[in-house]
Specification:
The complex is a heterodimer of chains A (407) and B (172). Chain A has helices at residues 5-17, 19-24, 69-90, 141-160, 175-183, 186-194, 196-202, 207-213, 218-225, 236-260, 265-269, 274-289, 291-294, 299-310, 313-321, 323-332, 334-340, 345-351, 353-359, 362-370, 372-381, 383-388, 394-406, and strands at residues 32-35, 39-43, 53-57, 94-101, 114-119. Chain A has 407 residues and is an alpha+beta fold. Chain A starts with a helix and ends with a helix. Chain B has helices spanning 4-12, 54-74, 123-137, 154-158, 162-166, and strands spanning 17-20, 24-28, 38-42, 81-88, 101-106. Classes of the chains: A alpha+beta (407), B alpha+beta (172).
């Protein structure tokens, strides 16, 4: 979303008045400690302690979250060089880096900046001590909301700015996902039903297979497709029994494959060869990677499932407030499993992010419950809210919060 | 010597952890100044700021900044605020030896006082300090000239999050 023209104009006006922008433009003199294309560091003329400096982006940003990614990285990576310079130059043994966001926190200028104050033992600077006398409550509302929201915000951050070292959780292949992938790859499914051991043996030698099974218990996956199967070393007589039942299954499958692809027939008799497995695994991971082919649950189906959820406020409440428990329930309760079998749970859960945003804002929640019409009007008026609720039926949101109040 | 933070993030107090990834962990302060006070630390044990690799350091700031944004949202925006405080090095009277950032939600009359008296320094003092610091800062960035150039593209990322705009309310 964009800053509205009004907001942009206000920002321009702010810049004209801003003392720090004028320092950057050298209209007001300052004692510059460091300067490059993006960042300026100056001595604070009202130092808390000898060597107290202010570090600011040259461009005017009123608040920290508005600083563009690259500027942010540079602005704060310089904090290390500057802290080290202060310590070396002034023979100090520590530093305090201090950021104030908002007037109530001590932000004095509309131009974002941070402070670095050199520190030494016995300096009597006590204001920056951060140990309180309170006891922590890991289950209070703020703690719960943080545990819910911060990981979502960070995953969004990584989506916009992927880091080489970060492996996003969303791409993780959960048991459900792996089963889904296999379901759509009849060949790999067949091997699992016919000769799982061959597959297990291939995994260490096949990168694609390794990837597919890296985050799941392979035995669980095999049992899903082949409930009677036991890992090698477990009771052998039972294995023979399963072999027998499988021979019949084989026959059925073979006749099928003959119809579909006669060329495959001769191969089907042999244990799965490694290049065949490789090709299959390749297909499987390709499918996993392309959201289009594999996860293409039609929009209609998505709408349908949302409708079902909307009609069950309890389920909805669970998805919104405790997605983990929801996943667990889906895994445990056959009816739910059935209901969500064709759906990506991550996607279902993500669809309700907007409710989580509401949950994290008491104000908004109260507005929806107490003044639904006022809420609608606000959404119509405020572009940020419009954006937030884009694609959502406001009446459904209102209904949900009414149901919740009654429950 | 064992480090309390390493133990805490190593699985001793999972209930306190609010966010973690490969490089950073954020947890609820065991001795909070106020409700919602969190601490952001690198997963690796570093002590002073110069030990922290720059990539990790930037990431810690991002986690702290998003933590601040999350707290700001929870405390109702508008008149709320946050402080991020890093006390590093022996001389800073730091709380932990393990490098850490405190993120503290702020409200009117919350009893926290990070303010200091504004006493203008005289010009001679400032020049003296400036000379000593400049000798050091002169070298900043010189050994890394091959790094990618930093570009400021202020219009591009501004647009991404609606909460950013909501936070405009809180500026003084």
């Amino acid at each position: 979303m964009e800053l509205s023209q009004e907001q942009k104009d206000a920002l321009e006006e702010q810049k004209k008045q801003c003392i720090f922008c004028r320092i950057v433009r050298e209209e007001i003199p300052a004692k510059k400690v460091y300067e490059d294309d993006t960042v300026l560091a100056v001595l604070d003329i009202n130092p808390l302690y000898k060597g107290h400096i202010l570090v600011l982006p040259k461009e005017h940003y009123p608040i920290m979250p508005l600083i563009p990614h690259e500027t942010f990285e540079h602005l704060f990576s310089v904090s290390q060089d500057l802290a080290v310079s202060l310590k070396k130059g002034l023979l100090m043994t520590g530093s305090t880096i201090f950021i104030a966001n908002g007037g109530v926190a001590g932000q004095m200028s509309q131009h974002f900046m941070y402070h670095i104050v050199p520190r030494e033992e016995g300096d009597k600077v006590e204001i920056f001590n951060t140990e309180g006398n309170n006891e922590v409550d890991p289950s209070d509302d703020v703690a719960k909301a943080l545990k819910q929201n911060l990981p979502i915000m960070m995953e969004n951050h990584f989506k916009r700015h992927p880091a080489e070292w970060h492996n996003p959780k969303q791409e993780g292949l959960t048991k459900d996902k792996v089963i889904g992938i296999i379901e759509q790859n009849p060949q790999i499914k067949k091997i699992l039903q016919e000769d799982p051991q061959a597959l297990v043996e291939q995994i260490p030698q096949n990168e694609q297979l390794q990837k597919l099974f890296s985050e799941v218990d392979i035995h669980e996956i095999i049992r899903h497709f082949n409930p009677k199967w036991q890992a090698e070393g477990e009771a052998t007589d039972q294995k023979e029994a399963t072999d027998e039942t499988q021979t019949e299954q084989n026959k059925a499958d073979e006749s099928q494959s003959e119809e579909l692809d006669p060329g495959e027939h001769s191969k089907a008799d042999k244990p799965a060869s490694s290049d065949r497995l490789e090709a299959i695994a390749e297909q499987a991971t390709q499918a996993a990677n392309s959201t289009q082919t594999n996860e293409d649950v039609s929009d209609q189906a998505k709408e349908d499932i949302h409708e079902v959820i909307d009609e069950n406020p309890k389920v909805k409440h669970l998805i919104i407030n405790d997605p983990k428990e929801f996943r667990k329930k889906v895994a445990e309760i056959p009816e739910l499993q059935e209901l969500f079998s064709a759906h990506d749970l991550d996607e279902v859960i993500a669809h309700y992010d907007v409710y989580r945003t509401i949950e994290s804002s008491q104000k908004l929640k109260a507005l929806i419950q107490q003044d639904p019409e006022g809420f609608k009007q606000k959404v119509a008026e405020i572009p940020e809210l419009q954006e937030l609720f884009k694609g959502y039926d406001l009446d459904k949101i209102i209904k949900y919060y009414n149901d919740m109040r009654d429950m | 010597m064992t480090c309390g933070i390493c133990e805490l993030i190593g699985g001793k107090a999972p209930e306190l952890i609010v966010y973690e990834d490969e490089k950073a962990v954020a947890f609820l302060s065991e001795k909070p100044l106020v409700k919602g006070h969190i601490v952001v630390v690198p997963r690796e044990h570093y002590e002073s700021i110069e030990e922290v690799p720059k990539e990790t350091l930037s990431h810690l700031y991002f986690v702290a900044s998003f933590g601040a944004t999350a707290l700001f949202e929870m405390f109702g925006g508008g008149q709320a605020g946050t402080n991020i405080v890093i006390n590093e090095g022996k001389g800073s009277n730091r709380r932990f030896v393990h490098f850490s950032m405190d993120v503290i939600p702020r409200q009117e009359n919350d009893g926290i006082n990070f303010r200091w008296e504004l006493n203008p320094a005289n010009s001679q003092e400032l020049d003296d300090v400036l000379g000593k610091i400049k000798d050091q800062t002169f070298f900043i960035g010189q050994e890394q000239e091959s790094d990618e150039p930093i570009q400021s593209n202020e219009t591009e990322t501004i647009t991404e999050e609606n909460y950013m705009v909501r936070q405009l309310d809180r500026i003084p």
